[in-house]
Design a protein that fits this description.
Elements (H helix, E strand, L loop, with lengths): L2 H12 L3 E6 L10 H5 L19 H9 L3 E10 L6 H22 L4 E4 L25 E2 H4 L3 H7 L10 E10 L6
Parallel strand pairs: 3-4
Antiparallel strand pairs: 1-2, 2-5, 3-5
Helix pairs in contact: 1-4
């Protein structure tokens, strides 16, 4: 079995609703998405090393992704009536990111995690205390921080972006190089 197929199988076995492989060069980056981060709806803008403005410029973030050849796009689906209800959204995002980290750990190869939301390994982030990141090798940023056009990405992967009423989909990525896999 090809390693890419094995990664998709692993994702589905772990409980992701869907998974697909893209070449990172197929991803569309829209610098204007950075303004979504500035709105600070999540409360992490300027308060988390993995979020703008501290995570890097739009171009630096794009370069981080393009260092890798492939991206395993991961999707979970959740029964959430109101996608703006943080009491339902936060635990779902946390579980999605936990599954993404588990997949990367089980894959056992270097790569870049892009989460469904900004890093939540530490609460609060060490930046709020003026200290360095406690887990720089595990830190992850969200799709918005990378300015990835998620709707376009999901179309390329043939995944549902807009779901039925009461269903919310979340997406993350594991970027990797095929040369690192046997």
């Amino acid at each position: 079995m090809k390693k890419e197929d094995a990664l998709i199988k692993l994702a589905l076995d772990l409980g992701f609703a869907d998974a697909a492989i893209l070449n990172t060069k197929e991803l569309v980056f829209v610098p204007g998405f950075r303004t979504l981060c500035k709105e600070n709806l999540c409360g992490k803008y300027g308060a988390n090393y993995a979020c703008p403005p501290d995570c890097g410029t739009v171009e630096q973030m794009r370069e981080k992704v393009l260092r890798w050849q492939k991206a395993l796009v991961l999707q979970t689906m959740w029964d959430i009536e109101d996608p703006l209800n943080n009491e339902q959204i936060k635990p779902a995002k946390a579980q999605h990111n936990k599954l993404t980290r588990q997949l990367i750990d089980e894959a056992g190869e270097p790569g870049l995690m892009i989460g469904v939301s900004g890093c939540s390994l530490c609460n609060p982030c060490a930046i709020t205390e003026g200290k360095p990141c406690r887990f720089p090798e595990l830190q992850y940023s969200c799709m918005s921080a990378y300015c990835i056009f998620v709707k376009d990405m999901t179309e390329r992967c043939q995944m549902d972006y807009d779901c039925a009423p009461g269903i919310t989909a979340f997406f993350s990525m594991y970027c990797f190089d095929t040369a690192s896999f046997p």
